[in-house]
Specification:
By secondary structure, the chain is mainly β. The chain is built from 1 helix and 12 strands. It has one domain: UDP N-Acetylglucosamine Acyltransferase, domain 1 (3 Solenoid), CATH 2.160.10. The radius of gyration is 11 Å and the shape is globular. The protein starts with a helix and ends with a strand.
């Protein structure tokens, strides 16, 4: 996505140097914070529950990874984390 496309997604916050595939999907984007230098590949799905999702700096979320924030507490993806392909993460 271009920087303009990233803005239209309606994220709670977004850092610099973010690379997101046009084929990635976001649900509850207004509760998703994305740090700097984050890469999210094709067909990754991020879904935010009431508590939201926070992605730290220098994070790579590979193709087909699924991250679901379903509880009231925030799902935190730490800086430097790599979510491999086919990962399913619930919080």
């Amino acid at each position: 996505m271009t920087d303009a496309e990233l803005v239209t997604q309606g994220f709670e916050a977004i850092g610099t140097g973010v690379l997101i595939s046009r084929f990635a999907r976001f649900y509850g984007a207004s509760r998703i914070r994305i740090g700097s230098r984050v890469r999210i590949d094709d067909f990754a799905i991020l879904s935010s529950g009431e508590g939201g999702v926070s992605i730290g700096d220098h994070v790579h979320i590979a193709a087909f990874a699924n991250l679901f924030g379903t509880q009231r507490s925030r799902l935190w993806i730490s800086a430097g984390f790599h979510a491999g392909s086919r990962l399913l993460q619930y919080r």
